[in-house]
Amino acid sequence: MARVVIFGSLRAFTNGEGEMEIDAQTTRELLRKLATLHPALAETIEAGVSLAIDGEVFKEAWFTPISAESEVVVMPLMVGG
Amino acid sequence: MKQDFKILGTRPIRPDGLDKVTGKAMFGSDKSVTGMLHARILRSPHAHAEIVSIDTSKAEALAGVKAVITGDDFADVENRWARYTMQNCMAQGRALYDGHAVAAVAAISKTVAAEALKLIEVEYKILPHVTDVDEAMAPGAPVLHEGVKARKLGDDVSGNTVGYYSFGHGDIEAGFANAELVIDRTFKTAAVHQGYIEPHGCLADLGGDGRGELWCSTQGHYMVREVCSEILGIDSSQLRVTASEIGGGFGGKTTVFIEPVALKLSQKAGKPVKLVMSREEVFRASGPTMSASMDIKIGMTKAGKITGAHAKLRYQGGAFPYQMVMMGAMSAFAAYDLEHVQAEGWDVMTNRPKMISYRAPGAPMAVYAVESVMDELCQKLELDPIDTRLMNAAREGTKSSYGPTFKAIGLVEALEAAKAHPHYSAPLAPNTGRGVSCGFWFNFGGQVSVSMAINADGTVNLIEGNPDIGGSRASISMMAAEALGIEYDRIRTIVGDTASVGFSDVTDGSRVTFAVGIATINAANAAIKEMCKRAAKIWEIDAEAVEWVDGAAQPSGHNAGNFPPMSLAEIAATSGKTGGPIAGHHEGAPDKAGVSFGVHMVDVEVDPETGFTSIKRYTAFQDVGKAIHPAYVEGQIQGGAVQGIGWALNEEYIYGEDGLLQNPGFLDYRIPVASDLPMIDAVIIEVPNPGHPYGVRGCGETAIVPPLAAVSNGVAQAIGVRMFELPMSPPKILKAL
Amino acid sequence: MRYVVAKDSREAVALLNTGENARLLAGGTDVLVQMKLGNKAPSLLVDIKAIIGFSDISAENGGFRIGAAVSGAEMGEHAGLKAMWPGVVEAVELIGSTQVQGRATMVGNLCNGSPAADAVPAMLAAGAVARIEGPSGTRDMQVADLLEGPGKTKLGKAELISSVYLPARPERSGDAYLRFIPRTEMDIAVASAGVNLVLDENGCVLEATVALGAVAPTAVMVPNAGAALVGSPLEEQALEACAAACEAACNPIDDKRGTVEFRTKIAGVMATRAAKIAYTRAGGQL
Ligand SMILES: Cc1cc2nc3c(=O)[nH]c(=O)nc-3n(C[C@H](O)[C@H](O)[C@H](O)COP(=O)(O)OP(=O)(O)OC[C@H]3O[C@@H](n4cnc5c(N)ncnc54)[C@H](O)[C@@H]3O)c2cc1C
Asked: Whole-prediction pTM value?
């Protein structure tokens, strides 16, 4: 089960839960399960999020593999200049 | 990871250089076609007003006028972000800021178009306005758009508050309880413009058959295509967008301001339309970056260990909903390894132009405030600013303040290089102070397409989809040459139009050398594979028994066969007979861009009688992973430092009580001039990014983050008074003295 | 719009007198910019650069006469003029950039009527005299008497300035001009000062003229500031009195370029610093 960390202000949509365990092989599966677990998060996930998997930041990459030991941080989608 | 490079790290001349210095390069406003019309935009003279009516009949009746449009000419679009972009290009119902477009004209000449603007009659009903972030956020402020307030925010903030973000971990109150000194300060920074030399310009041709051609100055022509085809309701395949050479963007050209207007005018007039902004329009109606109001609280032990840190960032981003403060909240404390940290941010709307990215968007102001408090703590506790930063520095394995755990990063290396540099120990003259600051930027990957053709004469054409804003054609050619094992000048890299190569994300986030670089290496590898196959065919051996060494195919061992190496040129020469053209391409969305840290050090002298600050010496240290073309990397670092110095000292959007912009020009919007600056010494630090085959990290943005606090900290030391507001223009400093 | 190259000043005056919305064009670095911005829309532009004599710098009665079409760069390259009136030349040379210098004239700077025009305080301090051509002939007038207000001079509608005369100067004299801008170039003076000094054998100030720019609707002479320096070897007390007189003479506006408080303070600082430079140029030892 991957350890999922929800960034601060998104916790308003997870009843304050900041960390949870989710069983997922890919980011797509993880995001789907997260949205089912916390329906209030669905809108944000739909709008787009960035994920940091073991320290590497990924932008909407659905099929990035996640291992059982992974730490996944869910963050807002980032843009640059 | 590859280490021994033949081409990377050298400094060949850039392929676009000669055209640029001889005036041959074609920028946004340089393209003309026969029969084209000239367009002008009528802009709101009010900060906030209802558009009661617009009468265009007199303008339409003027000889030479071929089309007039207003917001009514644009149909609604479903996607709300595209709608905001459209309504920013042309107001619908309400003018939301001074300079907001309300109508546009296409005519046979610029003079006729300008005449026609005077004949358009607009009846406005003036509405209350707000331009200051704290006022806009306060309950009771005039609200720009109803129903867009961030979810779950209370009545303590107004409906202009469109975003709220919080990052961090630990328990900040516990952190502050452990501190021996806590400093809590409020800072303000002004809105600043990217200051690109080339105003926005385009040439649009949209026919009655729904097919369009658009030439424009942009950081992302695919973005332009997607947004414009959505706004105009046409298929993206039918709109071909070509990016001109670009005279600077710095994030300011990652959206559209005039292109949908030019396309709509062209559609209505049935002729090509050229539309070029004046400098005044650039200031009033393109996107500056956010202004900010910020509270920073940091607790420290006497030894210099940070025990807790809290940031509250309130950013003002203009007249439409936006999301940018989160990048500030994520960057604020990124340089430090903290047990207890929280950074919160609020995005706020005001009656000002819609903000757009500016180099490391959101980070410079937050880091300015944090690094100022760090400096004050060091001063009060009599600690060395670099040692203190080293004690708290983030390193590999640090859980960052915004969530992820860092991989290999180069902050400690940059700080150590700064400490060891002769600049740090040089004596200081009277009225002079030395400031230091860290800075950080994420860097991005994202979607890229590269197509590479091996020509029969042994040369290579490479097409990529990212406008070159910093010398990337040179760096990409270098990476292709390195991967193929041939000379740099055998390769010609061009930026293709939207019909010639696959989709590519905008040139932003310091992503191009990283992401296009990966696609280039992969495309080269695909071509190499094919070339090995051709050699194998000629030698009549297995393709697997051929390897690519130093730009040539060779049998991979004695068992494979005994043939002399066959060069790229030799294989290319016979390609027509061995199976046809040889090419390689790659489309992908690489991630793992690798964050980048920098440390800047500056000596400033303040004239005690006038408050004038001069920059005496400046040294910038930055981890760039691997500098492909060191001269262009230095250029990025120097450019970032200079823009940051301007932000610190003189640049600001000045609004009067009437909500009108008072300084829409380079005379009173003061970017630094060459004589204001010493040579900026750029020190490149290379801690390879494990996410790139050559170790590349982005390098274009980090350098604008540290200068604000570095300069401010220098001023604090020079005059013995700390400034809490940017810009630190002479009247403000003199007043503080 | 018509563009005419005048052959002599009589033709130029006649063109100005036609009743058309006419403008003179010297270097054009003000007038063309104003037209481009849409602030001015003349129907007739009269170019005076081809008028014989207008581009000359000539020695006259120990001083120098500077033609109305002489560019800043030409003044900067004139060794004799620079040696005699270094303050006036440095003021003109501060205008714009290298490109602007190739075109901009000292007379254009004066006639444009900006309170912040750089050449004007230096001309006032130097006691410069303008030669004016008009429908009723030629007359000479102190530059100081020509100033009227922002964008205005006392020149008549059909009058033009053909040259400016910088008088001869006694031994032990020197002038200087300083302006304050928030950058190091390409900017408009927030406050500025021109100072012209004559010293006696002992290094004491015999005569002093001080003029300020950008702190009132026109550049202003500050007799009290000059008087404060007279008789002194420029010691601290005299300089303080000079600065105080300058501050008292300020009547600036509060705008994006500087507050009243700031402009006032800076005017005194510029004047005392310019005085020190002028003093050294006059051979004084500080
Ligand atoms: C980039 C730039 C930077 C600048 N920087 C400075 C600066 O640092 N300091 C500064 O003071 N100014 C500055 N200026 C303003 C301008 O360059 C100066 O005022 C210059 O001296 C004007 O001279 P000109 O010959 O170009 O005048 P023009 O533009 O030709 O004329 C100016 C005005 O004077 C009138 N005029 C010209 N000649 C005569 C005459 N012989 N008789 C009567 N009327 C006449 C014209 O009709 C017009 O109204 C700058 C301008 C630019 C474009």
From this structure: 0.96
